[in-house]
Each structure stands twice: as C-alpha cells, then as structure tokens.
C-alpha cells in the first residue's frame, strides 16, 4: 500500500471514505478479469460487476473513444445511437416492458421508478425488505435497512437458510399481507413494492419458490405496482438476462444501472409505454447527462460484447461449475453454513458453526483479506456482513474458476 496516497486521501476526502481490504490496494490498470497494482502484481477480479464485459474491453474502448471524438451533447436532439440502444435494451425484457427513461445511476433509476409508481397509482406507500439498499438520494435512502414508517414498510427479506417456518413461502407472504393491512389501517394509499430481484444486498438468499410471484400478485391486488431493482441482479448476472426471470416474477417497472455502461454512468427505468408517458407528462423529467450519444455508444458496445461472446450463457455455465466445485470444498468446512449461486453470483454464508448458524463477520473479513493476499479479490456483504460475495466480470472462465478454487481451498482449510 502506498502510505502517501492513503494519507492524501484521508486529508482530501475526509475520514469515513471507505476503502476495501485491511491493506488497501493501489490499482493502476485492468485487463479482462485481471487488475494490476502499482508493482504490477496481478489480481483476479471476482468482485466488480460494473466492468461486466471485462476491464478495458477493446471493442468498448474503441466505441467510447470514437464517440467522444465525434459528438458528445445532451439529449435534446435526435440521435440514432441512443434510440437503437433503448430499443435493444427493451427487447431483452418481457413483453410488458416497452419504453424507457434513461438516467446515470442506479439511485436515479430507482428515484424515477418510485415517482413513476406514485404517478400511476396516485399512492405513496412502498414495501421493501429490511436489509435492502437501492441508492442514496433522500427518497431512495428511506428504503435502506428500513425500520418502518408511514410511507415505507419493510418485510423481513425472503430467505430459506435461517427461516424455520414449515412453509417458508407462506411465512414471508404473511409478512407482506401484514404490511399491506398496516398501510390500509393508516390510510396510506399503496404505490407498490420495490425489491431487488435477487435480494443481492441482503446476501443472495434462496428466496422461497413462488414468493416473488405471489407477493407481486398481492401488491397488485392492493392497487400497487411491482418494481424490480435489476441494478445489481440484472444484465446476465444470474445466468438469465434479468434477475426476475431467475426469481420467476413479472415486474411492472424495472430499474437498471451498474453494468449497463461498463463504467460510463448509464442507468435506466423501463416499463409499459403508458406508465412511461404518464411519468414523462407528469414530471417533465430531465437529466443532463442521460440519453447522450456517449451513453449510447457505451451501452451499445456492452450489448455487442454480450452477443458476440455469449456472456449470459457463460454466466450460467461457469457459475454452475464454480458453485459445484465450491460445494465440494465447503462440505468439510464447518464455518460454511450455505453456498448459494445464481449464474456468476455466488454467496458463501460464513458462520461460527453449522449448528448455531451465527453469522461470523470477522471470519469472513479474514477470508476476504487472505484471498486478496493470494491474488483474488472478493468481498463480504449481506444483511450481517458475513457473506463471502463472488461476483466477477461475466468474461470469467472455467480456468479462472480453477485458479480461484485452489486458493480458496487452501485459505478456508487454514
Ligand atoms: C441493488 C442496488 N440498487 C441500487 C443501487 C444504487 O446504484 P448507484 O450506486 O449507481 O446509485 C445499488 C448500489 O450499490 C444497488 O446495489
């Protein structure tokens, strides 16, 4: 670690600007799934989902360079690139998704979705989970680990590992019913439910089968709409285009961000044409940097690579391989309570012991740091911070998985 850089950072950003790893990394370049530090030491990036097509993909680099050198204006003009991008993006969704509002961050996409839901329902209240993160604006952050208020009511995040109810699906559906009833009692009209399709920040739980579909039906019946946050769950991560396909439900509104622009800020909120038009006519929404030719060049280049390198399929097949091998290593490790996987997204529940299931955050942090010392970058996350989070760029291949599995096996057995 460069002590001088660290101290300058503390000074200029102020303390509290979080860094990863006990010995923070100074990164200088990236290439595919690899990152390199100041001493040219190589790390396998198994954490970053924004560079979904791999770091510095040549097609992407060429596309954004050439766009910057040609035209880069705001969105009050007609432009072929942004329309073809919007059409391509919408075509990856279910039939009810027809039109789109572009923005720059996941937070903005969720802000737009909440406004859209409030416009079309004339309601105000939202259901979310109790360990969610959907962004950091004043409105959206009310959903962060919400404890319950007149407008925001959380349900315990749907999961199968610690829930000991006999019918887990019914247990969580009952919690949805309770919150819908609470809105009614308090005379708050419902706007909808905002939920990450994979509950990624909650720790990628095994969501009881049928829960998302049935919860969505209950929300609609109560007059609300269903917003799927695909900011982390989407664009191939689960081995499907979108996380809602994996979790088997049909959202009315979807929000997307992070990987869409592979590092160029690009986010979107998509829905039926009717909902999008109601939102636009009601709000006059404008976002200076959104729908620009640069965003279009980035988004189109990402989709080109998805098509040419079949990244959704790669996510499904390599993810399955990685998880199967991990399960066989984890069999003998009493600290691993559960190994969960959706495409190239793996969550390893690090616990004090399998019997107590007590989250062991400190142990997880030790594993993350030891793996970093071995040249593999992962993270710890989830509701209790104890989940080892593996979420590599989608160009991650079986050979990379094998390299990682060797190191992982040594580290967890030590
Ligand atoms: C599920 C989810 N939604 C929304 C966001 C917010 O995205 P952004 O940081 O681009 O505003 C995040 C960021 O971590 C996220 O994980």
Number of domains: 2
- Summing up helix and strand content along with how strands pair, one would put the structural category as alpha/beta
Helix-strand pattern, N to C?
HEEEHHEHEEHEHEHEEHHHEEHEEEH
| CA-based gyration radius | 21 Å
Distance between the termini: 25 Å
Mean pLDDT: 97
Using the coordinates shown, work out and report the CATH topology of the largest domain: Aspartate Aminotransferase, domain 2
Number of strands: 15
Poorly predicted runs are: none
CATH superfamily label of the largest domain: Type I PLP-dependent aspartate aminotransferase-like (Major domain)
Q: Give the distinct bound molecules.
A: pyridoxal-5'-phosphate
Strand content: 15-25%
Oligomer: single chain
| CATH architectural grouping of the largest domain | 3-Layer(aba) Sandwich
Question: Can you summarize the main beta sheet?
Answer: 7 strands, mixed
CATH class of the largest domain: Alpha Beta
* Count of individual helical segments: 12
**Largest sheet, spatial ordering of strands:** 4-10-9-8-7-5-6
| Shape, per Cα inertia axes | globular
From the structure above, extract its key features.
single chain; 414 residues; alpha/beta; Aspartate Aminotransferase, domain 1; Aspartate Aminotransferase, domain 2; 2 domains; 7-stranded mixed beta sheet; 4-stranded mixed beta sheet; 12 helices; 39% helix; globular; binds pyridoxal-5'-phosphate
């Amino acid at each position: 670690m460069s002590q001088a850089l660290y101290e300058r950072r503390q000074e200029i950003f102020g303390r509290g600007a979080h860094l990863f790893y006990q010995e923070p990394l100074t990164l200088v370049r990236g290439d595919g799934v690899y990152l390199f530090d100041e001493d040219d030491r190589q790390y396998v990036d198994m954490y970053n989902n924004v560079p979904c097509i791999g770091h510095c993909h040549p097609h992407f680099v060429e596309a954004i360079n050439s766009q910057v050198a040609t035209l880069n204006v705001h969105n009050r003009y007609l432009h072929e690139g942004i329309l073809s991008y919007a059409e391509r993006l919408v075509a990856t969704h279910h039939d009810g998704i027809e039109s789109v509002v572009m923005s720059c961050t996941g937070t903005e996409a969720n802000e737009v979705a909440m406004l859209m839901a409030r416009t079309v329902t004339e309601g105000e209240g939202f259901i979310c989970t109790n360990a969610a993160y959907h962004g950091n604006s004043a409105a959206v952050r009310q959903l962060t680990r919400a404890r319950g208020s007149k407008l925001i009511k959380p349900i315990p995040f749907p999961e199968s590992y610690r829930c000991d109810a006999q019918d887990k699906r019914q247990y969580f559906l009952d919690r949805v019913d309770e919150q819908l009833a609470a809105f009614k009692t308090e005379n708050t009209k419902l706007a909808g439910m905002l939920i990450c399709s994979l509950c990624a920040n909650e720790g990628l739980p095994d969501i009881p089968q049928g829960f998302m579909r049935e919860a969505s039906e209950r929300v609609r019946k109560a007059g609300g709409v269903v917003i799927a946050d695909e900011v982390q769950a989407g664009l191939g991560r689960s081995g499907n285009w979108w996380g809602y396909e994996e979790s088997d439900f049909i959202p009315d509104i979807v929000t997307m961000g992070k990987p869409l622009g592979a590092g160029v800020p690009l986010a979107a909120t998509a829905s039926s044409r009717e909902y999008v038009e109601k939102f636009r006519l009601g709000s006059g929404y404008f976002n200076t940097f959104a729908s620009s030719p640069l965003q279009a060049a980035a988004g189109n280049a990402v989709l080109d690579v998805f098509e040419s390198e079949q990244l959704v399929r790669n996510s499904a097949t390599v993810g399955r391989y990685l998880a199967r091998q991990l399960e066989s290593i984890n069999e003998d490790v009493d600290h691993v309570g559960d190994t969960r996987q959706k495409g190239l997204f793996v969550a390893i529940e690090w616990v004090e012991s399998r019997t107590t299931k007590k989250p062991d955050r400190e142990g997880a942090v030790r594993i993350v740091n030891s793996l970093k010392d071995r040249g593999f970058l992962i993270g710890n996350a989830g509701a209790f911070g104890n989940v080892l989070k593996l979420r590599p760029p989608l160009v991650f291949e079986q050979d990379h998985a094998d390299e990682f599995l060797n190191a992982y096996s040594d580290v967890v057995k030590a």
